[in-house]
Amino acid sequence: MESKTIKLLCNDNKEVVFDAKLIQFSKVLSEGDESTLEFPCPFDEDIVLIMKKFLESHNYDMNSVKVKKPIKSNKLEEGLDEISYNIFR
After folding, report:
1. Which of 38-44's residues contact partners 24+ apart within 8 Å by CB, and which partners?
2. pLDDT tens digit string along 3-36?
3. Can you point out the beta strands (E) in 1-89?
4. What is the 3-state secondary structure (H, E, C) of 28-43?
5. Vertex 26, ends 79 and 1: CA angle to 5°?
6. pTM over 0.90
């Protein structure tokens, strides 16, 4: 069985397809009509692809994202979990 997907229509007229698990991270998407699988997005494709890589790397599980608070350093590796750091470095 094929899993549901959501398509984000980027600001630069490109499309990025996500797993439907994306809905749990967005109030706008979660309040939308379930039959709608395409949503406008105010960001360009390059930014959305980083977001997609981040979510996929964490298996759409925000509990796996660790941010040390309060932030005490401007060194990214000191404040993020290893997966997040490797995406954003």
Report:
1. 38/6, 38/7, 38/8, 38/9, 39/6, 39/7, 39/8, 39/9, 40/8, 40/9, 41/8, 41/9, 41/10, 41/11, 41/16, 42/11, 43/10, 43/11, 44/10, 44/11, 44/12, 44/14
2. 788 999 999 999 999 998 998 888 878 877 666 6
3. 5-9, 15-19, 38-40
4. HHHCCCCCCCEEECCC
5. 105
6. no
